[in-house]
Automatic annotation (TrEMBL):
This is Menorin-like domain-containing protein. PANTHER family: MENORIN (DENDRITIC BRANCHING PROTEIN), PROTEIN FAM151B. It comes from Felis catus (Cat). The lineage of its organism: Eukaryota, Metazoa, Chordata, Craniata, Vertebrata. Belongs to the menorin family. InterPro entries: Menorin_dom. Residues 29-231 form the Menorin-like domain. It holds the Pfam family Menorin_N.
C-alpha cells in the first residue's frame, strides 16, 4: 500500500513526526535527531546501523572506470571507487528503521539510482531525503549538479520525496569569508518557488553568522500554506554555534550535523 504524500510512512513525512511517532525522540526538536555522516563503505554502514543515529547520510556517484554498465557506488570525491554499491547499501539499510539521505555528486548517477530506489520503495516507508549542491555558494566551485534535470529526474520517479538543495562552499581560515549573498538565496528561492515538495537547505555553519538576513529571508519565502510542505534549514555546525541556535525558537526545525559521525 502506497503512503499518502507527506503522511505517515511516506518519503516526504516530516522526520520529527516520523521519529516521534515511532518513539525514537521525545520532543519535536531537530536537535534530538542524530545523524551518521558519510556512511559509504561497508564498515561505515555496519557501524551506522548499530549506532543510535536516526538518519544515515551517504554519497552516490558513478565509478571512475566509466563503464556503460557501471552501477552507482557509495563514495565522495576525491574518492571515485568503493567497496559498496548503492544496491548493496540499500539492501542493508532497508533492514533498519532509520531515515536516509542520499547526496548526489553528479547528475549521471541520479537516474540509475532512482531505478534502484524504485525497486525497494515498498520497503522504505520512512523519510528519504535526496540531496545535491545545485548552485555555487561562498568560496564554492562551479561543479554543481544541474538543478532542473536533477529535480525533474527525481520527481519523475518519486513525487513524494524530500529534497535537500544546497550550494557548493569553501572556507579559508586565514581570510575574511563572505557569507551567502542575496543573489545566492534569491537564485535558490527561484528554483524552489514552484516546487510542491518539502525542501531542506543545508548551509555551512561557519558562514551562517554573516548570512543571517539572507537565510531568514529564504526561510520566510519558503513558508507556504499547505500542511504537506515543511521547509527546514539544516546546519553543519561547530559546537559553539549549535549551543547558540538551540536557544532560538527556529532551532526546533533545524537539524545539526556536528563534526563527529553521530
Amino acid at each position: 500500500m502506497t503512503a499518502t504524500a507527506g503522511g505517515p510512512g511516506s518519503w516526504s513525512e516530516n522526520i520529527l513526526e516520523y521519529f516521534l511517532r515511532n518513539n525514537h525522540i521525545t520532543t519535536e526538536d531537530g536537535a534530538e535527531i542524530i545523524w551518521y555522516h558519510a556512511a559509504n563503505h561497508k564498515a561505515q554502514v555496519n557501524e551506522a546501523l548499530k549506532s543510535p543515529a536516526h538518519m544515515i547520510e551517504a554519497d552516490v556517484l558513478l565509478p571512475s572506470d566509466g563503464s556503460e554498465y557501471s552501477q552507482p557506488i557509495m563514495a565522495h570525491p576525491p574518492e571515485t571507487n568503493s567497496d559498496n554499491t548503492l544496491q548493496e547499501w540499500l539492501t542493508e539499510v532497508i533492514k533498519s528503521n532509520k531515515g536516509i539521505k542520499l547526496d548526489f555528486e553528479s547528475l549521471a548517477a541520479v537516474e540509475p539510482s532512482m531505478m534502484l530506489l524504485e525497486n525497494v520503495k515498498r520497503h522504505l516507508q520512512r523519510p528519504v531525503w535526496i540531496n545535491a549542491d545545485i548552485l555555487p555558494g561562498p568560496n564554492g566551485n562551479s561543479r554543481v549538479v544541474d538543478a532542473k534535470p536533477f529535480i525533474d529526474t527525481v520527481t519523475s520517479f518519486f513525487p513524494d520525496v524530500t529534497f535537500s538543495l544546497g550550494w557548493t562552499t569553501g572556507w579559508h581560515p586565514e581570510k575574511v569569508n563572505e557569507g551567502y549573498s542575496w543573489t545566492m538565496v534569491k537564485e535558490m528561492e527561484y528554483i524552489c518557488k514552484d516546487l510542491n515538495l518539502p525542501v531542506t537547505f543545508p548551509v555551512r555553519a561557519a558562514l551562517v553568522r554573516q548570512s543571517c538576513s539572507q537565510l531568514l529571508w529564504l526561510l520566510k519565502k519558503s513558508n507556504r500554506d499547505s500542511t504537506k510542505l515543511w521547509h527546514l534549514l539544516s546546519f553543519f555546525l561547530e559546537n559553539w554555534l549549535f549551543q547558540k541556535l538551540q536557544k532560538s525558537k527556529r532551532a526546533l526545525k533545524m537539524f545539526f550535523h556536528t563534526g563527529s559521525q553521530v
